[in-house]
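Why should sequence recovery work at all? Because a backbone constrains its sequence more than one might expect. Tight turns favour small or flexible residues, buried strands favour hydrophobic ones, and helices have their own preferences. The token representation captures these environments compactly. In the example below, the structure is given first.
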């Protein structure tokens, strides 16, 4: 009996020793990714959006505890009212204040040229990624940026890759910077991150929807795509890869809760993960007081510059995105007229994608400097070129070649009246063109007022790079200033839609 009790005590002690010696089962770890993208307006619009309301939501998620990363999918340095004055310095200051964890370069980060991009990157107290942006002079990553970044979440390692749309040189001002293919870059770096111990690979990207789908469905090696660029609100998970985009202007905060765990598989322990999505609206959210104060300080500075009346419009004006990218508008005509007069050119052509207010002005409105800067925030200058009639026709064909996708290349013109067909093939859509009341002569020479972005081939206007330059960007005036002067000199304007760019079917 005594022996049995002793044996029982020995077994109990042995089992206790084994239990104490065995490693405790790992608990699942949740990493919260708080994602925004395409946020350049620091103020709210009514009862939603803006940095102060957004930061309230971010701080609530942080206060709830756990692993949290605040990420940005690019496009903030430009375009905005303030960026026209400080080239985006304010947005970096405010993101520093918000303690942003990670950002990727978007195409609008290059709107003021790569030198300004480097300056803004240097001012950031958070990492800025772009794995596929290469400095042509050095052959290395753009100075100050990182290709990848790693975060340790408990026992798990999460690797991030930064990707920027290769279309950036066409739609921004990234001279001296080349952009490598997306999927190949992602594959190479995801393999490298996993070799270095990454359990999960996240692409923080500023890429179009077609590029997003290539990354999600192709051989990219990534697990999660946090994207931007299209201003879409998306959550997607196919059982293997997740993909989100958070709209624009901080109206929504996308929360991706990634639950990571280790399970026993056939070959031993296996890493597994699963995403859960929450979309938080800033509508009605109380603004963060400290951030609201900083934002207001910048807005007060802006008001001193912009709240100056210029003149009235006796007719309604619109800059709605779909209209300026798909049809003639009175506002587009006003801008083109101001450019044409400003440099005394035969004709003027500017792109709808450069008209950014996305709003409607009622008849009788008093236009201010703020209104014009809102519409033309990029800091573009009005240059003067000499082209042949054949080159001008090619430019107009290009302007209406991708209207189905709402491309920014759609032309607003002055001195030109053209008809075009939506149903014809791209390159064959222009049916007639007249210049100042006379049929276009392919062999004749014409002077063209356009913006410096298009003059260097932006938005695909490569034909303008073959033109003779009469007034270059260094000698040119800002487009916005030219329009302001035009309205102020007139006192009252009444532009109208009059068949300058007329669709015939």
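From this structural description, the recovered sequence reads:
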């Amino acid at each position: 009996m005594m022996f049995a009790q002793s044996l029982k005590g020995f077994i109990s002690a042995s089992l206790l020793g084994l239990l104490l010696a065995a490693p405790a089962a790992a608990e699942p770890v949740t990493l919260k990714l708080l994602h925004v993208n395409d946020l350049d307006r620091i103020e709210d619009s009514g009862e939603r959006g803006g940095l102060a309301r957004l930061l309230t939501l971010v701080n609530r998620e942080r206060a709830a505890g756990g692993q949290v990363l605040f990420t940005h999918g690019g496009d903030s340095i430009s375009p905005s009212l303030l960026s026209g004055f400080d080239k985006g310095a304010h947005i970096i200051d405010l993101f520093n204040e918000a303690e942003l964890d990670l950002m990727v370069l978007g195409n609008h980060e290059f709107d003021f040229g790569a030198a300004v991009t480097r300056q803004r990157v240097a001012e950031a107290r958070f990492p800025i990624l772009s794995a596929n942006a290469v400095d042509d002079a050095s052959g290395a990553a753009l100075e100050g940026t990182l290709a990848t970044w790693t975060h340790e979440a408990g026992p798990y390692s999460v690797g991030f890759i930064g990707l920027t749309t290769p279309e950036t040189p066409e739609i921004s001002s990234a001279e001296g910077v080349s952009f490598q293919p997306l999927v190949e870059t992602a594959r190479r770096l995801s393999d490298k991150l996993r070799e270095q111990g990454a359990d999960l690979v996240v692409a923080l990207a500023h890429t179009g929807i077609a590029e997003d789908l290539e990354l999600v469905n192709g051989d990219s090696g990534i697990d999660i795509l946090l994207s931007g660029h299209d201003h879409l609100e998306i959550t997607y998970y196919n059982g293997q890869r997740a993909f989100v985009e958070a709209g624009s202007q901080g109206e929504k905060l996308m929360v991706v809760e990634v639950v990571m765990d280790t399970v026993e598989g056939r070959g031993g322990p296996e890493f597994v993960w699963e995403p859960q999505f929450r979309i938080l609206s800033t509508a009605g959210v109380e603004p963060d007081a400290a951030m609201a104060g900083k934002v207001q300080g910048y807005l007060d500075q802006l008001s001193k510059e912009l709240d100056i009346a210029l003149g009235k419009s006796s007719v309604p004006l619109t800059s709605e995105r779909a209209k300026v990218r798909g049809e003639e508008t009175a506002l587009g005509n006003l801008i083109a007229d101001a450019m044409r007069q400003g440099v005394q050119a035969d004709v003027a052509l500017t792109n709808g994608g450069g008209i950014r207010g996305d709003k409607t002005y009622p008849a009788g409105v008093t236009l201010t400097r703020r209104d014009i800067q809102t519409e033309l925030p990029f800091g573009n200058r009005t240059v003067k070129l000499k082209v042949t009639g054949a080159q001008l026709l090619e430019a107009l064909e290009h302007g209406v070649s991708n209207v189905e996708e709402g491309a920014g290349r759609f032309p607003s013109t002055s001195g030109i009246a053209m008809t075009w067909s939506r149903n014809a093939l791209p390159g064959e859509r222009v049916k007639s063109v007249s210049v100042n009341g006379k049929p276009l002569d392919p062999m004749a020479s014409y002077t063209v007022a356009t913006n410096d972005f298009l003059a260097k081939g932006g938005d695909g206007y490569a034909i303008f790079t073959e033109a003779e330059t009469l007034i270059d960007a260094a000698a040119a005036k800002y487009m916005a200033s030219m329009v302001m002067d035009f309205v102020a000199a007139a006192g009252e304007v009444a532009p109208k839609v009059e068949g300058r760019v007329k669709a015939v079917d």
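A few observations help interpret the result. The longest helix spans residues 2-21.
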